[in-house]
Amino acid sequence: MFETSFYTLAVVVLVVVPLYAWRIRGRTYAIFSGLVLGLSMPGLFFTLSKFAVWFPEPYLPLVRFLALYCLGAAGIHMGHLVRARMRSRTFRLLVSVPGQATVAGGFLTVGWLLLTLPVRAVFVVLEFDVGSAALVWLDLLPLVVALISIFTSVRPVVEVVRVTLGTDGPAEVTRVPVERHRKRIPPALDTRPLRIVQITDPHLGPWQSVRALREIVSKLVEHEPDLFLLTGDFLTMESMGTPGSLHEALAPLKAHPGRCFAIFGNHDHEAPEEVRAALAHNGIELLVDQEAIVETSVGPVQLIGADYVGRGRGEHLKGLLGRFARREDHVRLLMLHDPLGFRDIEPGAVDLVLSGHTHGGQVGLVSLGFDWTVLSRSRWPDHGLFALGSNRLYVHRGTGFYGFPLRVGVPGEASLMELIVNEAD
User: Fold this and answer.
1) 10 Å Cβ neighbour count for 90?
2) Which end of the chain is more exposed for a tag (fewer CB within 10 A), N or C?
3) What is the rounded distance in angstroms from the CA atom of residue 175 to the CA atom of residue 237?
């Protein structure tokens, strides 16, 4: 009976949501919603088949009810994106969070099945019942990870990050150690550092409400930094459909004119006027391939803001940095949303690049104290500090994230950077 109900609801969700999307919003979102839901379903069906083994009979009806509820929530959430707008806290907690977690759990399970497929095949061929029985319990892992990742995703980790500028370094982009202090104030430095608060990838939406982002920004303001640098990707489909939500969330920055600067990320080009209006409302200067000179407590800073470009990244950065020559006795900072462009910057062209975009890799072992993420072996610098010659790059893990998969072992970041500019290596 339960299996029939689940499969029936799955078919209804897979058919109704894309058709509704096609009729109201158009083909692109209809295809997107169909693919997202369809690709997660094999994992959900597999999980469903294990319920009777994993859960004792007294708890089985409740677990099955929750499974039906979460599948329905996934359908409602994807359906509400057809007319996307910011929703109430109740809607987010009862629909968006369980719905997106369910879809993410389905994707994680599919990945787990593909990863363990060779082992399963060997067990079947060898008729190794003990190994097959062990796998049944290991198959709980994607579900457990999806549940744990909800808590990892809710709030960024408070940190103080200390970065020392360099005079030399490796010939290839290389991760280098960075000094982090989590949930505690480190001993004061002998020399006053340049204090920077970076906000990146807040992705105002179901996982990042206006109230939540405003609280995060308010806490960051308490550090009294020299600079607030916002490195893009402010919105999601929900906040794009709710004019004014971003300027309300960033309101704590309005009291700090002349210290707040921003650039566009890739998603900001989907609603550029909404982002421009929100930044202007709060006195935040948007740098679109532009330069700003800021006087700070530790001396002048030359700040260059790069617009996001999808192609011709190397030529774009070369032209931008050539147009704004290095100013003598200025710390030279580049705001660059996508850190992949760091490898295209000539040695000595900048002191420090500040980026986001990767969400820290989003899936990895950072919560356990390891640097590894799914992007660690890719061309993308995923999180932390990197060097290329004397150039340095700091990749912020992000203030939020967009949709799913959830943050798995890679928490967001709400950090104060102390940049040591008078003790370069």
Assistant:
1) 8
2) N
3) 34
Only one residue has tokens 């011709």, namely 312
Strand partners, 342: none
Please give the structure tokens belonging to residue 47: 């999980």
Cβ neighbours of residue 11 under 8 Å, at least 6 residues apart? none
Q: What is the C-alpha to C-alpha distance for residues 374 and 397, in angstroms, rounded to an integer?
A: 13
Distance CA 210, CA 87 (A): 10
Sheet holding 174-176, edge to edge: 174-176, 384-388, 391-395, 352-355, 331-335, 299-305, 290-296
Query: Mean pLDDT of all residues in the chain?
Result: 93
Handedness of CA 216, 418, 282, 307 (dihedral sign): negative
User: Residue 65 is encoded by which pair of tokens?
Assistant: 């009810």
Low-confidence ranges of the chain (pLDDT < 70): 131, 404-405, 422-425
Give the C-alpha separation, 287 to 362, whole Å. Answer: 27
**HEC readout, the chain:** CHHHHHHHHHHHHHHHHHHHHHHHCCHHHHHHHHHHHHHHHHHHHHHHHCHHHHCCHHHHHHHHHHHHHHHHHHHHHHHHHHHCCCCCHHHHHHHHHHHHHHHHHHHHHHHHHHHHHHHHHHHHHHCCHHHHHHHHHHCCHHHHHHHHHHHHHHCCEEEEEEEECCCCCCCCCEEECCEEEECCCCCCCCCCCEEEEEECCCCEECCECHHHHHHHHHHHHCCCCCEEEECCCCECHHHHCCCCHHHHHCHHHHHCCCCEEECCCCHHHHCHHHHHHHHHHCCCEECCCEEEEEEECCEEEEEEECCCCCCCHHHHHHHHHHHCCCCCCCEEEEECCCHHHHHHCCCCCCCEEEECCCHHHCEECHHHCCCCECCCCCCCCCCEEEEECCEEEEECCCCCCCCCCCCECCCCEEEEEEEECCCCC
Separation CA 65–CA 68 (nearest Å): 5
In tens, the pLDDT along 341-368 reads 999 999 899 999 999 999 999 999 999 8
Please provide the distance, in angstroms rounded to a whole number, between the alpha carbons at the two ends of the chain: 69
The pair of three-digit structure tokens given for residue 18, joined into one six-digit string: 């894309």
Structure tokens of 415?
């950090």
Q: Could you give all domains of the chain from N- to C-terminal order, each with its CATH number?
A: 2-152 (no CATH), 156-420 (3.60.21.10)
CA distances from residue 361 to 182, 371, 407 in whole angstroms, order as listed:
19, 10, 9
Rounded CA separation 131/386 (Å): 43
